[in-house]
Each structure stands twice: as C-alpha cells, then as structure tokens.
C-alpha cells in the first residue's frame, strides 16, 4: 500500500474515532485512554483542585472569615466546567424567557402551567430574597437538612451566622434552637411536606413552593388567595390547608434546579422529561443546587444517612430510627450521595455535620 494511501486511511480513522467520542457514542477509556471527567462531566480527581491564581490571590487578601465573592461557583466550575451561574432563585415575570424550563412539565419545568403561574406571580409581586439580601455583594448560605445527625451538636449559633438559612419542609425550629439555630430565611416545601400546624411557623420567613406536579400550583393558589381547600384528591398524603404568610412572602422555586440536579449533576434517568422511577432528586439536593447558583459560599448541615447505624435517629426532631428508611420509588439516594460527595471532597460546599462523608472523604 502506498504511503499516501496509508496516511489518508489513518487520518480518516482518527477523524471517525474523534467524532464518535465527542458525540458520546464511545468512550476512549476502553481503548487505553483515561478521561479526566466522569460520565456526568465532573473532574475525576477532586483532591487538590485549585482555583485560578487571580482568585486565589483575591481570596487570600480577604480578612479571616470574610465572605468570598463567587467562591462556590468558581469551585464548581473547576470540577464541572459545564456549570454556568445563570438560574434565578425564584420564578419572576420574565420566566418564559428562561427556555430551559418551558419545554418540560412539572417537576422539571412549567409547560402547560403558565396561566396559573402568571396569576400567582401577579399576586405575590415579589420575586427575590428582599432588598437587603438582593443587594448584598456577597452572600453566605446554609441548607439545613432534617437529619438526626444534627441532634446534640450545638450548631445553632454557627447556623445563625449565615446570611441565608434555608430549611426544608416541616422541620421545626422552636425547641431545637441550640442544635439547628433560630434563623430562617426561607422554607422550601411542597404541599405534602408543608407545616400543617400554623403555630409552628417562624415569625418571619419566605414560604417557597417547589412544585413536583401540576396540582401543587393549584394548591399554592389556594394558599396565596386564602381560599378554602375543598379536596385533597391527587395528593399522596395530607396537606396544609392554610399558610400564615402574606402573598408578598410567598415564592415559586425555579424548577430548573430540579431539572439540573436530576439530569445533569446526579445523572438520573431522563424518562423523556417525565417524572418516573428513581429520577426525582430529594428536596435537599434541589436546595443545594439552587444555592450553588445564587450564593457565594455554600454550607450544609444535617445531611447524610448512615445505614450502618440502624438505631440512630432518622430526623433530629422525632424518634423514628434510621432502620425506617425504605427504598424510594422516586429517589436514588446512592447516586445522590455520589454527587454530594463530589461537592464536599472538592470544597465546593462545607458540611458542618460531616454526614455526607460519613467515615471521611
């Protein structure tokens, strides 16, 4: 075979191999190559990930304990180059321009729900954290999980130091301040997870709906307009019938965070963009994803289930034990833990209770 012909055949083979690789049809790891990134696009080697020199210099010159602007996003981009800080925390009147959510039905988007969302947004009239926090140059945020690992840790004062304290569902504050703090900036929930006893609500906090189904928006409409909820058909358990908040203190969480956490960051089944078995992230993972987009520094507390301790408390506020955990139809806890481990190992987020790493990262 002539040398020129051999050259062109080799070139064609290389071009074909490159096309197949970049189109995702093959993995060069099987051919002796070691990709720097895993299937989701995260850097495989997370230890010792460094930031650009200009950022290291910038953060190094800050006083000890000072908030580091853009730190979480910079760290996230270092281990996950596809990350872009583009998603607003809550839906606002311009949400239809955010094309990524228009193509999906709940929980991954707003398709077919635009009419009721417009009604809700016109009633709430507020779409941010509040003037002071929205104008802050740097925000520290903590997502407080409900795990029993919070019990007897006396982290309350530390949690209250954060600019934004995010709590989930009906986890109580009153009576547990020593361990979980007394400050609540927002409480993210869905109808079945919302506090049902009005006296358990904080004096001040934002009520944030994370909608997992179309019916959730209808439920929020009843709460916003203080209308009697005549039927609870379609909910999988009892729901709150009244939320002691003015419409101006109610928000709708951007469903993009559910979409991104599920399909991109954790890598759950796409299922043609529909809710299906094992493709819904937990509310905690959704809240962390939201914080990565909107906070400069991100911490968590009360995350992590250690199944090797079946008699440990599942939640900090009740006596149910760890052994009560059952396999979830909607969640994939093991895949989700892999995602959270990446964030902790790379220093993207700080875990105050060390529950995500368990035995250590």
UniProtKB/TrEMBL annotation:
Which Enzyme Commission numbers does its entry carry? 2.4.3.6
Instruction: Name the GO cellular-component terms.
Output: Golgi cisterna membrane; Golgi membrane
Q: Which UniProt keywords apply?
A: Disulfide bond, Glycoprotein, Glycosyltransferase, Golgi apparatus, Membrane, Signal-anchor, Transferase, Transmembrane, Transmembrane helix
Q: How does it sit in the membrane?
A: Single-pass type II membrane protein
Q: Pathway, per Swiss-Prot/TrEMBL? A: Protein modification; protein glycosylation
Q: Which class of enzymes does this protein belong to? A: transferase
- Where in or outside the cell? Golgi apparatus membrane; Golgi apparatus, Golgi stack membrane
Source superkingdom: Eukaryota
Annotated Gene Ontology MF terms?
Answer: N-acetyllactosaminide alpha-2,3-sialyltransferase activity
Quote the catalytic activity from the record: a beta-D-galactosyl-(1->4)-N-acetyl-beta-D-glucosaminyl derivative + CMP-N-acetyl-beta-neuraminate = an N-acetyl-alpha-neuraminyl-(2->3)-beta-D-galactosyl-(1->4)-N-acetyl-beta-D-glucosaminyl derivative + CMP + H(+)
From the record, give the cysteines joined by S-S bonds.
141-295
**TM spans, by residue?**
7-24
Name the Pfam families for this protein: Glyco_transf_29 (PF00777)
The entry's family comment says: Belongs to the glycosyltransferase 29 family.
Stated role = Catalyzes the formation of the NeuAc-alpha-2,3-Gal-beta-1,4-GlcNAc-, NeuAc-alpha-2,3-Gal-beta-1,3-GlcNAc- and NeuAc-alpha-2,3-Gal-beta-1,3-GalNAc- sequences found in terminal carbohydrate groups of glycoproteins and glycolipids. The highest activity is toward Gal-beta-1,3-GlcNAc and the lowest toward Gal-beta-1,3-GalNAc.
Protein name, per record: CMP-N-acetylneuraminate-beta-1,4-galactoside alpha-2,3-sialyltransferase
């Amino acid at each position: 075979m002539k040398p020129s012909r051999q050259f062109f055949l080799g070139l064609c083979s290389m071009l074909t191999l490159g096309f197949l690789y970049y189109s995702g049809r093959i993995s060069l790891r099987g051919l002796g190559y070691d990709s720097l990134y895993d299937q989701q696009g995260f850097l495989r080697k997370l230890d010792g990930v460094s930031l650009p020199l200009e950022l290291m210099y910038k953060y190094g010159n800050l006083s000890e304990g000072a908030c580091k602007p853009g730190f979480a996003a910079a760290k996230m981009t270092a281990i996950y180059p596809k990350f872009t800080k583009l998603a607003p925390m809550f839906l606002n009147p311009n949400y239809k321009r955010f094309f990524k959510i228009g193509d999906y039905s709940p929980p991954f988007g707003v398709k077919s729900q635009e009419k009721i969302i417009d009604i809700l947004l016109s009633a709430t009239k507020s779409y941010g954290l509040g003037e002071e926090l929205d104008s802050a140059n740097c925000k520290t945020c903590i997502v407080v999980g409900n795990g029993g690992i919070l019990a007897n840790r006396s982290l309350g004062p530390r949690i209250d130091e954060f600019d934004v304290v995010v709590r989930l569902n009906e986890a109580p504050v009153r009576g547990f301040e020593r361990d979980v703090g007394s400050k609540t900036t927002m409480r993210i929930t869905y109808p079945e997870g919302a506090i049902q006893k009005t006296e358990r609500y904080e004096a001040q906090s934002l009520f944030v709906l994370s909608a997992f189904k179309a019916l959730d928006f209808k439920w929020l409409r009843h709460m916003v307009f203080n209308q009697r909820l005549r039927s609870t058909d379609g909910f999988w358990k009892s729901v709150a019938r009244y939320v002691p908040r003015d419409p101006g203190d109610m928000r709708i969480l951007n469903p993009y965070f559910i979409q991104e956490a599920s399909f991109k960051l954790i890598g759950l089944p796409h299922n043609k963009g529909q809710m299906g078995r094992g493709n819904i992230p937990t509310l905690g993972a959704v809240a962390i994803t939201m914080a990565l987009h909107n906070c400069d520094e991100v911490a968590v507390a009360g995350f992590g289930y250690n199944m090797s301790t079946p008699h440990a408390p599942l939640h900090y506020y009740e006596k149910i034990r760890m052994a009560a955990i059952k396999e979830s139809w909607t969640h994939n806890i093991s895949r989700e833990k892999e995602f959270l481990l990446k964030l902790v190992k790379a220093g993207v987020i700080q875990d105050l209770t060390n529950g995500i790493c368990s035995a250590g990262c």
